[in-house]
């Protein structure tokens, strides 16, 4: 074990973990931030998506050592009062069914809206296509991302 220094949701952590441990398990099992979900363990479904220096990143395959010196943001750190435009739009559109994939969907969408504050429908589809939803709420997800872009514009 090695001491790993991480910044997660603007808090500093000194963690005694194996440097090869996936970031997902450090977040969930060591730090206790369980909003980021385990889906496939192969970076194929998107449930484990977090931001690493603002980029949507699959935490299930990333060794924790790769996050050292970078800003990690989980769904818990996206907005202090859970009032990010995406979180507002998710509620207004009533996106989730089971909800399992939603934190990964929101984190991917937040990365998209940071880079492209006014995405077209096709740009939303392209950005979100790597995130799987067992319930098939894709049309509501697309609608919520568009709505979040509108909310974001209004400030």
State the gist of this model:
The chain is α+β, with helices and mostly antiparallel strands and 155 residues long. The chain is built from five helices and five strands, in the order ββαβββαααα.
Question: What can you see in these coordinates?
Answer:
- This protein has 155 residues and is of the alpha+beta class.
- It has two domains: 2-77, Ubiquitin-like (UB roll) (Roll); 85-154, [2Fe-2S]-binding domain (DNA polymerase, domain 1).
- Helix content is 37%, strand content 16%.
- It contains five helices and five strands.
- The chain has helices at 23-31, 85-93, 102-115, 121-128, 138-154; strands at 2-8, 11-17, 49-52, 55-58, 71-73.
- A five-stranded mixed beta sheet has the order 2-1-5-3-4, sandwiched between helices.
- α2 packs across α5.
- The longest helix has 17 residues, at 138-154.
- The radius of gyration is 15 Å and the shape is globular.
- The mean pLDDT is 96.
């Amino acid at each position: 074990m090695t001491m790993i220094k991480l910044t997660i949701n603007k808090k500093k952590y000194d963690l005694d973990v194996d440097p090869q441990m996936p970031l997902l398990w450090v977040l969930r099992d060591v730090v206790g931030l369980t909003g980021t979900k385990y889906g496939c363990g192969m970076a194929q479904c998107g449930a484990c998506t977090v931001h690493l220096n603002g980029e949507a990143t699959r935490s299930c395959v990333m060794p924790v050592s790769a996050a050292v010196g970078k800003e990690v943001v989980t769904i818990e750190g996206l907005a202090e009062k859970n009032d990010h435009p995406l979180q507002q739009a998710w509620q207004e559109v009533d996106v989730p069914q089971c909800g399992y994939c939603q934190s990964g969907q929101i984190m991917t969408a937040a990365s998209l809206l940071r880079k492209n504050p006014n995405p077209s429908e096709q740009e939303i589809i392209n950005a979100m296509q790597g995130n799987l939803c067992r319930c098939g709420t894709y049309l509501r997800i697309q609608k919520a991302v568009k709505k979040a872009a509108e909310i974001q514009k209004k400030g």
